[in-house]
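Our preliminary data section would be incomplete without showing what the modeling component actually yields. Below, a chain of 379 amino acids is followed by its predicted structure, encoded as tokens that our downstream tools consume directly.
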Amino acid sequence: MLVPRYGSGALSDVVPSLLAGLDVPGMVNTLSLPAARKVCLLLVDGLGWELLQRYAADAPFLAGLAGGSITAGFPATTGTSLAAIGTGVPSGEHGVVGYTFAAAPDQLINVLRWTSHASGKHVDLRDRFVPEEFQPLPTTFERAQEAGVLVRLVTEAAFEGSGLTRAVLRGGEFAGVLALGDLAAKAATALTAADRVFCYAYHSQLDLLGHVYGPGSAAWRFQLGHVDRLAAAIASDLPPDAMLVVTADHGMVLVGKDDKADFDTTPELQDGVRMLAGEPRVRHIYVEDNALDDVLTTWRAHLGDRAQVVPREEAIEAGWFGPRVLDRVRARIGDIVVATTGTAVVVRSGVEPMFTQMAGQHGSLTATEQLIPLLTLTS
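Predicted structure:
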């Protein structure tokens, strides 16, 4: 199990390091990245470092860039990682502690949709949990704007105004895109729009195909080739004193077909559990009063060496969520945290049928999920 290298080699260190080169006050280049006056940070959802190494022949441009690997953060999942990009701090401080988690004692939130979860229907929670209050720290984008840097978000048009965008990616100009060509064109345009530019560009479809068909499948490899050409297209239009930086939010594990524990069909796992959140590779367990020890014993016995099952305080002390966990964040973390190993998953066939069938999963502390690329090219 690989604890993220917060402060010396984690995704939360990337944007502060880049903005230090753009003379944004308070930002420190802890990753010793090259400085440039115009930066495009391309985040490819699901592009794990081990996967890129294994399928380098499908992505020759990316494989040839300078750089290496960093760690994603915990959990290694999109919402948490985008929050690390947008705030420059680990999950223990920004508070997006998973794909789903307890936003209140009686309410699970799905942060990608900003809706209720496991309740039988998706209810918009933007009024109950106002995104700007739910994650109140100033974003890296806001701080860059205040320093006179042109900040532009080049991402899917459907994300404009979403709860997650408002919570962790607010600040800067939103430039919605529809497809790969649109993304390349708008990223290139952003880099010529001012003297100092920070462009955040995001591509999601590689992750989608990894979930559906599995990382390394034919569909996934063809998409990786398209991502490679996307990065090359942006690089070909870099103006003087500009830099392309490529990273990801997590890697991905191919799930073992017979390596699933199903919470919804296993009564012993349900005993003493008030709410279950997270996703198949990482679970937050919220327990009934006085049930912590019994639930801990049962889950450890059932999962064995397929997972680390630890109380909240042990996960915090181990640094999974970063060197600090703020008081407002602590209750969002499960009373028990489950981080699976190998190819194991904890599914919910009744409540999460789509997740249950997915071939590829991510979130945990294995090197396959944690290690992501950090690649650079300067003009």
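The radius of gyration is 20 Å. The first helix runs from residue 14 to 20. Preliminary results of this kind motivate Aim 1 of the renewal.
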